[in-house]
């Protein structure tokens, strides 16, 4: 549901972008307060003189779009515009995946490539703005004092995990649709190159606009840079409102954001549906039953998701964002996967499989990473997360009630404890001593379907056979 929320917000902004006067550019709207500062008066000096001042973009985001309540304990009513956009989001998701990868694959050709066109347009425009190169300089030449901070590198590693969708199962599920002889080695290389390359180019788009906005307001780039939803829904709309033809650039930006969110949304939902369907193939792989099952899943998530579009929904979103898929979950899952792959299943056995599939034996560096380097670094990151843990706060003033923090940790532990609890259950349900069970599991016969009815199989005591 995480990326679906970005899609909902982006759709609302996209609808408002076609107005002759962008509503986040001025304070002449019904939702604005007496402390509102329009774009023409928004600068650092005036902000200092008005301690309670808020920008027009911030008030549009908090008061018009979200209708923020006083806290998570005040959910309030459902925002009908957000609920309508949410319905559109889940309907698009359903019709993208209701036929399985046959339909989602065709949709992905457009949703995964068209954002690059929008990105290129915004990049060209950003580089031609006055003050853009100050923002790019800020982007390319970081503060060396910050680079000496271990926390910066740990957070960067966490972002790579999140950006590549590692440890959450999406790549594993989508990879299961490949043919046996698919070159997964080459796919991984291109995935990393395109993903990081896109992020690098997107940095020029963002910081060129931030440099332009900083020059307009007469402040430093670090004063206008934000992280999280604020960058996409407060800072960037502010900047586009200062440009000539602001509606065009705003439409380009939010259309790109919608398509990026759509792509990620239906792929993650598809991974959940595929995982469940593969557990019960006779029940859910039938054509009509599959469509009904997808409809039930999407409808159920839509109803659950309605809590996100209430007046207190942003507090729920921030809670899930902070606790639902944390660095602790990523690091612990990484350690478990590396132990399972490098030590239990065996890195050498995995090398044999990859070589048989791709006719290319991976570098020994990967074996060192799977068995030693990655588990060690991930465990260090996991420990540091627990040591440096701080309670979630919103805007440095709102503190969640204790029950919300308990709920947050329950979400974290639901991922962290799943692997050891499942492993313990399997050990208890399998007869024999601990050593016998371990050997039995390790020598378990594994097979890969080639073409029905041919399977290629092996175990530790026998070579490949068909």
From TrEMBL:
Keywords for this protein: Disulfide bond, Membrane, Metal-binding, Signal, Sodium, Transmembrane, Transmembrane helix, Transport
Statement: the UniProt record of this protein carries the keyword Flavoprotein: no
Membrane topology recorded in Swiss-Prot or TrEMBL: Multi-pass membrane protein
Residues bound to Na(+): 163, 195, 260, 263
Disulfide bonds: 27-36
Signal peptide range in chain numbering: 1-25
Primary residence: membrane
GO cellular component: cell projection; plasma membrane
Coiled-coil intervals, chain numbering: none
Membrane-spanning residues: 78-97, 109-133, 153-177, 189-214, 248-273, 293-320, 332-352, 364-387, 407-425
Protein name: Sodium- and chloride-dependent GABA transporter 3-like
Organism: Mastacembelus armatus (zig-zag eel)
């Amino acid at each position: 549901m995480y990326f679906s929320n970005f899609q909902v917000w982006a759709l609302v902004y996209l609808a408002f972008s076609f107005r002759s006067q962008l509503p986040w550019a001025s304070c002449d709207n019904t939702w604005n307060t007496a402390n509102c500062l329009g774009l023409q008066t928004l600068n650092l000096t005036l902000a200092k003189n008005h301690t309670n001042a808020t920008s027009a973009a911030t008030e549009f985001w908090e008061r018009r779009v979200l209708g923020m309540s006083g806290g998570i304990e005040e959910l309030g009513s459902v925002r009908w515009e957000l609920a309508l956009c949410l319905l559109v989001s889940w309907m698009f998701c359903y019709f993208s995946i209701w036929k399985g990868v046959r339909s989602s694959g065709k949709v992905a050709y457009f949703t995964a490539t068209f954002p690059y066109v929008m990105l290129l347009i915004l990049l060209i425009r950003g580089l031609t703005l006055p003050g853009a190169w100050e923002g790019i300089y800020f982007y390319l030449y970081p503060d060396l004092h910050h680079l000496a901070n271990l926390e910066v590198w740990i957070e960067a590693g966490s972002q790579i995990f999140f950006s590549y969708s590692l440890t959450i199962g999406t790549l594993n599920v989508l990879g299961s649709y490949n043919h046996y002889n698919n070159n997964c080695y080459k796919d991984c290389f291109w995935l990393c190159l395109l993903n990081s390359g896109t992020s690098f180019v997107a940095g020029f788009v963002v910081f060129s606009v931030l440099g332009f906005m900083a020059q307009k307001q007469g402040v430093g780039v670090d004063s206008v840079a934000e992280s999280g939803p604020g960058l996409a829904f407060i800072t960037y709309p502010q900047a586009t409102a200062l440009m000539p033809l602001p509606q065009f650039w705003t439409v380009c930006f939010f259309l790109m954001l919608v398509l990026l969110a759509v792509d990620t949304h239906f792929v993650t939902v598809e991974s959940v549906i595929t995982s469940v369907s593969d557990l019960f193939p006779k029940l859910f792989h039938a054509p009509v039953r599959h469509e009904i099952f997808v409809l039930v899943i999407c409808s159920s998530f839509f109803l659950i998701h309605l809590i996100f579009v209430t007046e207190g929904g942003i507090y729920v979103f921030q809670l899930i964002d902070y606790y639902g898929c944390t660095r602790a979950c990523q690091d612990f899952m990484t350690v478990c996967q590396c132990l399972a792959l490098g030590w239990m299943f065996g890195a050498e056995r995995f090398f044999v499989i990859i070589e048989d599939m791709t006719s290319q034996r991976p570098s020994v560096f990967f074996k060192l990473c799977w068995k030693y380097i990655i588990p060690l670094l991930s465990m260090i990151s996991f420990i540091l997360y627990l040591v440096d843990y701080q309670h979630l706060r919103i805007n440095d003033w709102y503190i969640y009630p204790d029950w919300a923090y308990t709920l947050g940790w329950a979400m974290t532990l639901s991922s962290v404890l799943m692997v050891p609890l499942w492993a313990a259950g399997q050990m208890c349900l399998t007869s024999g001593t601990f050593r016998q069970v371990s050997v039995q599991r390790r020598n378990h016969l594994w097979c890969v379907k080639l073409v029905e009815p041919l399977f290629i199989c092996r175990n530790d005591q026998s070579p490949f056979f068909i």
